[in-house]
Design brief:
heterodimer; A: 107 residues; mainly beta; 6-stranded mixed β-sheet; 4-stranded antiparallel β-sheet; 10 strands; 48% strand; globular; B: 119 residues; 7-stranded mixed β-sheet
């Protein structure tokens, strides 16, 4: 099975910072990657699909890029509402595996 | 508006069974694949099981294969997860998730239902 590895596991940042989270696949998954945001006690929320397509209603400060085995989620200017955990997920083939998550904390 | 409402969680005995349900509304249920995703306390997301729109294809994570069964009733717009031979490591919040159009990313999620396996 293809493994998904996110880095870093935890990230400390300030409001206004540019933040980048990386997700690596152990084999090529083309562009079949999604990103989710999850706040404590809440369900995950889809941010990005097909590596770089922004889900409707998601602020444009979120962007995704990458192809093959390396992908990034970028928040261009971190807002107070963005302090949360973020997960990548591959969906090129079964099983539909998640990365282990990245927690974005207030610095 | 898409709504997914899980029910059926609670306390289960090791070796016992529980059945989760997910009532869907706001979309044509039979047109979309559905999945169950779980999250153990303080841990990350783990995909558990998926089912095609027609119900003809089902998929399971190795951790639950042979113990859990996913099904759907398209006449009732409801997704199910039958959980047998429960283990302590099955303790988690279980989310019902609607797949995207023709793809297995998860566009909409329910609020989750907590399953605790303990004697």
């Amino acid at each position: 099975d293809i493994q998904m590895t996110q880095s870093p596991s935890t990230l400390s940042a300030s409001v206004g910072d540019r933040v980048t989270i990386t997700c690596r696949a152990s084999q090529s998954i083309s562009s079949w990657l999604a990103w989710y945001q999850q706040k404590p006690g809440k369900a995950p929320k889809l941010l990005i699909y097909k590596a770089s397509s922004l889900e409707s209603g998601v602020p444009s400060r979120f962007s995704g890029s990458g192809f093959g085995t390396e992908f990034t989620l970028t928040i261009s200017s971190l807002q107070p509402d963005d302090f949360a955990s973020y997960y990548c997920q591959k969906y090129n083939s079964y099983p539909w595996t998640f990365g282990q998550g990245t927690k974005v904390e207030i610095k | 508006e898409v709504q997914l409402l899980e029910s059926g969680g609670g306390l289960g005995q090791p070796g016992g069974s529980l059945r989760l349900s997910c009532a869907a509304s706001g979309f044509t249920f039979s047109s979309y694949a559905m999945s169950w995703v779980r999250q153990a306390p303080g841990k990350g997301l783990e995909w558990v099981s998926g089912i095609s729109g027609s119900g003809g294809s089902t998929y399971y994570a190795d951790s639950v294969k042979g113990r859990f069964t996913i099904s759907r009733d398209n006449s009732k717009d409801t997704l199910y997860l039958q959980m047998n031979s429960l283990r302590a490591e099955d303790t988690a919040v279980y989310y019902c998730a609607k797949a995207g159009s023709s793809s297995w990313y998860f566009q909409h999620w329910g609020q989750g239902t907590l399953v605790t396996v303990s004697s």
